[in-house]
Amino acid sequence: MTVGQLLNEPYNYSNGLMIIKEMSQELALKLLNTKQVTNELSLSIHYDCKTFNYVDDIEETEVNRFGRVRPKSVRGHIGLIRYSNLEHYIRKQLLRLFNEIVDSDYLLRRITITAHNLKDCQDTIVNYEQGNLFYDFSNENGLDRQQTLQETTLNIQERFGKNAIFKGLDLKDKAMTLRRNKQLGGHLA
Predict the structure, then answer these.
(1) Distance, CA of 118 to chain centre
(2) Angle at 25 between CA 163 and CA 83, to 5 degrees
(3) Which candidate, 102, 154, 106, 112, places its Cα nearest to that of 24?
(4) To the nearest 5 percent, what fractions of the chain are helix, strand and coil?
(5) How far apart are CA 173 and CA 159, in angstroms?
(6) 81: pLDDT strictly greater than 80
(7) In the prediction, which pLDDT does 31 show?
């Protein structure tokens, strides 16, 4: 399952973090809507050609489909401790991966998040998971609360539209969620 965003202008590192937060919510709600969970995420970042105006020592480059040279794209994968479709957990892991693979001096142009190894929610209930000494089991009630909150959000969006409920983050200047929700096939409706 994939969520992708072609940004309408080059975004800096901090605005990229904001987009990752928005996209993690979209991915989590898609997983919940299809009643699926994942245990692996990947992140693909394509940089913008205008990065050359700000950074002099770019070692690796590539040519995009329009014939323009840009800094080489980066990709990364991260495994999750357990299968999940919880936004908080997915966002935390994607932000960690973003911080590991993205050069903070480069301008971002396209971001793609993919959830791998999808399973139906029912399949994970009967399966046993490998124990982990570092997992905080005291937070299990909080996970149920997050799941209920996500289900409620999804129900409201299905009934009243995707922009019926949103986060304060979505009101920031460079945020894309509210704009994307008004589009059909990437074009303004």
Answers:
(1) 16
(2) 145
(3) 112
(4) 45, 30, 30
(5) 27
(6) yes
(7) 94
Whole-number pLDDT of residue 102: 95
Q: What is the residue range of 151's domain?
A: 2-188
Neighbour tally for 70: CB within 10 Å: 21
- pLDDT of residue 127 exceeding 50, the answer is no
Provide the CATH number for the domain around residue 150.
Answer: 3.30.1490.100
Closest CA to 123 of 88, 94, 90, 85: 85
What whole-number distance in Å separates Cα of residue 7 and Cα of residue 42? 19
User: Is the C-alpha dihedral spanning 24, 12, 7, 74 positive or negative?
Assistant: negative
Give the list of residues 6+ apart from residue 64 with CB closer than 8 angstroms, or none. Answer: 46, 49, 70
Into how many domains does the chain fold? 1
Tell me the C-alpha to C-alpha distance, in Å, between residue 91 and each of 22, 100, 130, 144, 169. Answer: 9, 14, 23, 17, 14
21-53 pLDDT, tens digit per residue, is 999 999 999 999 999 999 999 999 999 999 998
pLDDT given for residue 187 in this prediction: 56
Q: Residue 134 phi/psi, 5° resolution?
A: -100, 0
Q: For the ranges 17-26, 85-94, 161-170, which has the lowest average pLDDT?
A: 161-170
Q: What is the Cα–Cα distance from 56 to 119, expressed in whole angstroms?
A: 45
The dihedral sign for the CA sequence 135, 139, 141, 142: negative
